[in-house]
Amino acid sequence: MSIGGPCSIQGCKRTHMYNSPVCYKHKGQKPSPKEYERASGEDLWWTDDDESQRCDDTPESAVCEFDTYDGICWNCKNMVHPDIHLIHLICNRRTGHGLLDPITSREDRAPELEDALDRILDPLNERDIASHPNLSPEDRVKALMEMDDREHILSELEASFPDWKERSMSQFNLEPDGFGLGELIHRLYNDIHAFNQEEWGPGWAAEWCLEKPDPLPSALGIKSGSRRYHSSGRYLNPIAHVIVLIYVLGCLNWIVNHSPSHWDPEDGEFIVIFMVVLIPFIYQLFSYDIPE
């Protein structure tokens, strides 16, 4: 299923979300069989679990776990509340390393600048996490989108680095259109003000400097992103390395205690080969297939 068709809730004229029969307004609701009939053989990722409500709607028993790249809970398969999604996006990006990573490597970064940014930005993140607890998710995300700390952040940086213009480095360039730190701070707040979870997708994730998470083997019981990933191949239990180490040490101890100086060359070669050949069998014993 792709995006573009009508929502399957009777009477709704909105466009359905990607890989969902319903629109953003009705996410979390399931159309009745008369409203939506699944195509024969179509395997939909959200049918594995009950999606009638978000995990966050029952915080006493569960909370939504998600990657900010797509904002979809790994467990209930719903888009998380927009205020939660935005706060995670802000806290990931509005940090010293989050702002400096796009313009400088860690080796070339001025540590005093990153420390100053963290000192300025950490209280802002703590403020936003605790702000407006009594508002609905929709009203809270609007309140978060209205904040603007650019003047405060830049004035604090200018006070900490009064010679920033003389440094001639992008990481110290505080001009809003100067292709440096100042521009990234302005872009951050422009993106906050433009946040719209209904339009969220890979393009916006890239703007927020997010990369698509790597798929993880399903045999490990790990979910990644909005669907379960499956990978073929073999999985090696790490305990195999421990057993091989014990085996090799035991072999060396046996050789030392059995006077190898009295062996014939052919006997010594045979014993060493026999010991080494068993190692692959140990690894084979502790590995197993990962189903597709």
Task: Give the gist of this structure.
The chain is mostly helical.
Question: Layout of SSEs?
Answer:
Blueprint: H1 82-93, H2 96-100, H3 111-130, H4 137-145, H5 150-160, H6 164-167, H7 181-193, H8 202-207, E1 233-236, H9 239-257, H10 265-285, E2 287-290
Antiparallel strand pairs: 1-2
How would you describe what is shown here?
The protein is 41% helix and 3% strand. It is mostly helical. The chain has a two-stranded antiparallel sheet with strand order 1-2. It is flat, with a radius of gyration of 28 Å. Helix 3 (111-130) runs antiparallel to helix 5 and helix 9 packs antiparallel against helix 10. It has three domains: 1-47, no CATH class; 59-220, no CATH class; 233-290, no CATH class.
Number of domains: 3
Largest sheet: 2 strands, antiparallel
Measured by DSSP, the beta-strand proportion falls in under 5%
Shape: flat
Query: Average pLDDT, to the nearest integer?
Result: 77
Structural class: mainly alpha
Based on DSSP secondary structure assignment, what is the total number of beta strands?
A: 2
Could you name the ranges where pLDDT drops below 50 across 5 or more consecutive residues? 33-51, 216-233
Helices, by number, come to 10
Spatial strand sequence of the major β-sheet:
1-2
Order of helices and strands: HHHHHHHHEHHE
Helix content: 40-55%
